[in-house]
Amino acid sequence: MPERIDFPALLAGHTVVIEMINSGDAGLPVLTQLLRVAQPALGATGMAFVEFGPTGGRVIAATGAAEWALGRPLAVDDPDTVCLLSGPRVRQVRVADLNGKLAGELAGSGLRRMVVSRAEIGGHTAGSLHALYPGDDEPGPEQQGAIGYLASCVAHMYGDQSGLPVHGDGPVVAALADGLAVVDRDGHVRLWNPAAAQVTGQPVEQALGRPLPFPLPPSGQVRDHRMPDGRWLRITSGELPGPGTLRVVTFRDITDQQRRDHDRELFVAVTSHELRTPVTVIKGYADTLTDHWESLTEVDRRQAARVIGQRANELARLVDRLLSSAAEVGPGDEPPNPFDLGEALRAAVGDLPTELRHRLVLRLPSDLPKALGHRPSLATVLTELTTNAGKYSAADSPIEITASVDGHLVAFRVSDRGIGIRPEHVERAFDRFWQGESGDRRGYPGAGLGLYLVRRIVEQQNGWVSLRPRTGGGTVAEVRLPRG
């Protein structure tokens, strides 16, 4: 560990980050660049940022020796999560002092110490920034000061809503209760309760004496309003009795309700669109066989029957995915068991469609250790990942399946050479029904459920899945499971 920080390099790199923000970049690309700048300047082996929400945390950015942790979830009751969210805001931590699964994974990757700082906004913890080191030497006060400063910079990005938080349940958008405000005849705030500060993100000192941060509906009416950060508020107002012209305003966050309504509408739109194509083809070929059986050759009849069978299989698979997205999927209450990952992958490949199977290049080490999980669900995971890779790459390009062991984890990767994925989309791609820009939905059909189901299945087995752009073009999907 270096005795001093390379401050000139840190300042020069930070200037690049600020220029990215000034040029309109935001979110994960900026956060990842900040980590790339900080790692060599701090002499760290790896850097990571964990974003926290009410339901726990997730590693959303990582560099160097910590890249393997990208996408890893941290449950809200995990001992490591509790440790990271308590104590001083900036401190150094010995990996051996952690009590959760993360400690074993870090130690298995040769990481023994970290300097960690929480990124806090108005009492809310948006996330934690980590600089990781392999040796037993204690990081000096300079490292702690620099990490604390960088974490504050990240917190500022959250406060400015610069493409963060990544997850919809992040702390900046959390609403704990109804907000209450009283405004005078000029529309200026006279009273602002703590819940109002929680719902809007505006503390009392910023709200008092200023106009409301949203439109005021007429007395006795209700209005749903979308805030600039994308959240929805339901606002009501009424006149206060008395000689003054004061109005009381109540409001609450209905983002989840709006999202459910949107998902319901999107579900109907997607299913009607995706079901129509195979049904139309099946009906067309069935009508052809019925109306022109005698005039068709044996080859034509077999071809029609083959197409009907293929489309029926597509239809059945789509229905299964739609039903699974609305229900609990995965192993359920069945305990995880050790299984031969290499053999399971080979068996799952054998069940893939012929045109997809012919594109696969399987490179699995002979000494791959067992994984701990639910073997039957692996076929679903591999099917979704390879289908996704095939859909977004040329029909004659290879799809590689590789595997490796990393400390206490065993991983396999599905790599394609297709259109790739933008860094800011590597997390959103796991959202239900999400498929990128609207143009992608026309060019690449599908319901947008495959990766959503994969993440649910893998995380129920104490593993995690992540996406990243492939060097040279394309996308890499990586699944990590505990070793058996």
What labels describe this entry?
484 residues; alpha+beta; 6-stranded antiparallel β-sheet; 5-stranded antiparallel β-sheet; 14 helices; globular
Characterize the structure shown.
There is one protein chain. The protein has 14 helices and 18 strands. It has helices spanning 7-22, 28-42, 79-84, 101-108, 141-159, 194-200, 204-207, 255-292, 298-325, 341-350, 354-357, 375-391, 438-443, 450-459; strands at residues 46-53, 56-64, 73-75, 90-94, 113-121, 124-133, 179-183, 189-192, 222-226, 232-239, 247-253, 337-339, 360-363, 371-373, 399-406, 409-415, 464-469, 475-482. It has a six-stranded antiparallel beta sheet with strand order 3-2-1-6-5-4. Helix 1 (7-22) runs antiparallel to helix 2. Mean pLDDT is 82; it is low at 168-176 and 437-442.
Distance between the termini: 34 Å
What is the multimeric organization of the chains shown?
Answer: single chain
The biggest sheet, with number of strands, parallel, antiparallel or mixed sense and barrel status, is:
6 strands, antiparallel
Spatial order of strands in the largest sheet: 3-2-1-6-5-4
> Low-confidence runs (pLDDT<50, min 5 residues)?
168-176, 437-442
Domain Histidine kinase: 270-484
Organism: Micromonospora tarensis
EC number: 2.7.13.3
Catalytic activity: ATP + protein L-histidine = ADP + protein N-phospho-L-histidine
